[in-house]
Amino acid sequence: MLMPNTDRLARLHYMANGFRVLTPGDHVLCAVSGARIVLEDLRYWSAARQEAYASATLATEALSA
Predict the structure, then answer these.
(1) Sign (positive or negative) of CA dihedral 8, 13, 19, 23
(2) Is residue 44 part of a domain?
(3) Can you point out the beta strands (E) in the chain?
(4) Is residue 57 included in any domain, yes or no?
(5) d(CA 5, CA 25)
(6) Is residue 33 classed exposed, middle or buried when 0-12, 13-18 and 19+ CB atoms within 10 A define those classes?
(7) Residue 6 domain-assigned (yes or no)
(8) How many domains does the chain have?
(9) Which of 5, 12, 23, 53 could serve as 59's disulfide partner, Cβ 3.0–4.6 Å?
(10) pLDDT digits (tens, 9 = 90+) for 17-42
């Protein structure tokens, strides 16, 4: 029986046009706020920094620092 990946932190490899799942899970954490981001809602990340961001504002904040 397959177990759902509910409430498991995923490990991803971020690329320019997408990401690859290294460790299955249902969410990642925002590098700036620490907020939980469900993988289906993940829209912002940095391939160079290998970080995820919860919003465009947080991504801009992180990348301008």
Answers:
(1) negative
(2) yes
(3) 11-15, 18-23, 27-29, 36-38, 44-46, 51-53
(4) yes
(5) 5
(6) middle
(7) no
(8) 1
(9) 53
(10) 999 999 999 999 999 999 999 999 99
